[in-house]
Amino acid sequence: MQVFKEAKPNILVVGDLMIDHYLWGSCERISPEAPVQVVDINKETTVLGGAGNVVNNLKALGANVSVSSVMGDDDNGKELVKMLHAIDVNTQNLIIEEKRKTSKKSRVIAVSQQILRYDKESKNNISNESVQKILESLANTIAMYDTVILSDYGKGVLTQELSQGIIALAKKHNVKVLVDPKGKDFSKYRGAYLLTPNKKEAVLATGIDIKDETSLKKALLKLKNECDLDVSLITLSEEGIATYEEEVKIFPTVAKEVFDVTGAGDTVIASIAFALSVGKSLEETAAFANLAAGVVVGKIGSATVTIDEIEDYEASLHKSTSDAHIKSFEEIAKIVQRYKKNGKKIVFTNGCFDILHVGHVKYLQIAKSFGDVLIVGLNSDASVSRLKGPSRPVNPAEDRAYLLAALEAVDFVVPFEADTPYELIKMIEPDVLVKGGDYAGKEVIGTEFAGELRLVDFVDGKSTTKTIEKIQGKTC
């Protein structure tokens, strides 16, 4: 994930921008004027909607984002521009069209239930003059972008002429165009790098009932050939992502819990664009997008996801390499802060773990059962030598850390140089501090910084010392 954290790709989003407006209140009576609920509004919120949700997702991932769209010369348009500026989005390619209504969707919500939605918007195609203004503007700037996203919500911005014009401009400068399509006719996206229809959209566009891998391949091939795509892609909800470049590949989803799929499509295309922009392969990109979707569907409402959240989620699935679980003091401080903010219970233990054996594994499994996240402090080689003698450790810290990090029970490993983990415990302030049963009645370093101390008995006859003696032939 380090490559993603350091990346700041330049990505352009073109499409239907809108404001999602929420009126929150309570309902305790029916109107005497008509058989309708009376909602007492106590809060109003607004967020970017439509293509704006793609923008939000890209910003959350860390991209530099520019937008191009057409809006009206109205109060909603002015509000939308302020919202974009508030998150540092480049709006130089926004076009104002007289008499056009900027999209704003207002939802009335009472007792956590949406009871009404009313829209103010124009849905007719933008004018030819607006199309030309956008294309003229992009002709001078498109080369600066790593990727272009066309986010089509069917509100009239992405006309046939504009979509084809942008794709042609992008191809001249070897810039990939990714499209979140709308409707049945995908011909206006012809020549794009890839589209991201879901299964239902792909069925409508191809006329092929996708019910197995054979029909899925037919739909992917039809989309690829008819739309002249570099890569054909269909999102399959809980089944993951299917792609066709030279063969069909299905990348299974990694969602643990699904609370809400609102905006998941925006997260998928944003994460695909981000990964491709930093040079990732199609396989790496699909895996990254699946992780991002797995995070976002575990949230309520239209949501975004950060690289840190994706890294934490991948770690929780144990699909990352051991290296990804080995952290420095600085890194673990930030991770702990995030987990605590999300209400996770932090468990800490430490040791030399010189020759990993079943006693270690059972001890760590029990330690993990005390909370949500297990952090293991690992003595450095010099520290082990001072504690155990000059012949130890048998295995260097790098190897010991890697093996520990590979265990399912262990979330993170943090090497430390001192003889005790005092400073590490002080920094982490774990909810639970775990030590071996031999510490019963003894002073335990760092307990003043922990929520509670738990002692775990060791497995009889299992220790690094006994293992070494057996190897040396001193025991049998």
From TrEMBL:
<dbReference type="GO" id="GO:0005524">
    <property type="term" value="F:ATP binding"/>
</dbReference>
<dbReference type="GO" id="GO:0097171">
    <property type="term" value="P:ADP-L-glycero-beta-D-manno-heptose biosynthetic process"/>
</dbReference>
<dbReference type="GO" id="GO:0016773">
    <property type="term" value="F:phosphotransferase activity, alcohol group as acceptor"/>
</dbReference>
<dbReference type="InterPro" id="IPR011611">
    <property type="entry name" value="PfkB_dom"/>
</dbReference>
<comment type="similarity">
    <text>In the C-terminal section; belongs to the cytidylyltransferase family.</text>
</comment>
<keyword id="KW-0511">Multifunctional enzyme</keyword>
<feature type="domain" description="Carbohydrate kinase PfkB">
    <location>
        <begin position="10"/>
        <end position="304"/>
    </location>
</feature>
<feature type="binding site">
    <location>
        <begin position="198"/>
        <end position="201"/>
    </location>
    <ligand>
        <name>ATP</name>
    </ligand>
</feature>
<feature type="region of interest" description="Ribokinase">
    <location>
        <begin position="1"/>
        <end position="320"/>
    </location>
</feature>
<dbReference type="InterPro" id="IPR023030">
    <property type="entry name" value="Bifunc_HldE"/>
</dbReference>
<comment type="similarity">
    <text>In the N-terminal section; belongs to the carbohydrate kinase PfkB family.</text>
</comment>
<keyword id="KW-0547">Nucleotide-binding</keyword>
<keyword id="KW-0067">ATP-binding</keyword>
<dbReference type="InterPro" id="IPR011914">
    <property type="entry name" value="RfaE_dom_II"/>
</dbReference>
<dbReference type="InterPro" id="IPR011913">
    <property type="entry name" value="RfaE_dom_I"/>
</dbReference>
<feature type="active site">
    <location>
        <position position="266"/>
    </location>
</feature>
<feature type="region of interest" description="Cytidylyltransferase">
    <location>
        <begin position="348"/>
        <end position="476"/>
    </location>
</feature>
<keyword id="KW-0548">Nucleotidyltransferase</keyword>
<keyword id="KW-0119">Carbohydrate metabolism</keyword>
<comment type="subunit">
    <text>Homodimer.</text>
</comment>
<dbReference type="Pfam" id="PF01467">
    <property type="entry name" value="CTP_transf_like"/>
</dbReference>
<comment type="pathway">
    <text>Nucleotide-sugar biosynthesis; ADP-L-glycero-beta-D-manno-heptose biosynthesis; ADP-L-glycero-beta-D-manno-heptose from D-glycero-beta-D-manno-heptose 7-phosphate: step 3/4.</text>
</comment>
<dbReference type="GO" id="GO:0033786">
    <property type="term" value="F:heptose-1-phosphate adenylyltransferase activity"/>
</dbReference>
<dbReference type="GO" id="GO:0033785">
    <property type="term" value="F:heptose 7-phosphate kinase activity"/>
</dbReference>
<dbReference type="InterPro" id="IPR014729">
    <property type="entry name" value="Rossmann-like_a/b/a_fold"/>
</dbReference>
<feature type="domain" description="Cytidyltransferase-like">
    <location>
        <begin position="348"/>
        <end position="440"/>
    </location>
</feature>
<dbReference type="Pfam" id="PF00294">
    <property type="entry name" value="PfkB"/>
</dbReference>
<comment type="pathway">
    <text>Nucleotide-sugar biosynthesis; ADP-L-glycero-beta-D-manno-heptose biosynthesis; ADP-L-glycero-beta-D-manno-heptose from D-glycero-beta-D-manno-heptose 7-phosphate: step 1/4.</text>
</comment>
<comment type="function">
    <text>Catalyzes the ADP transfer from ATP to D-glycero-beta-D-manno-heptose 1-phosphate, yielding ADP-D-glycero-beta-D-manno-heptose.</text>
</comment>
<dbReference type="InterPro" id="IPR029056">
    <property type="entry name" value="Ribokinase-like"/>
</dbReference>
<protein>
    <recommendedName>
        <fullName>Bifunctional protein HldE</fullName>
        <ecNumber>2.7.1.167</ecNumber>
        <ecNumber>2.7.7.70</ecNumber>
    </recommendedName>
</protein>
<dbReference type="GO" id="GO:0005829">
    <property type="term" value="C:cytosol"/>
</dbReference>
<keyword id="KW-0418">Kinase</keyword>
<dbReference type="InterPro" id="IPR004821">
    <property type="entry name" value="Cyt_trans-like"/>
</dbReference>
<keyword id="KW-0808">Transferase</keyword>
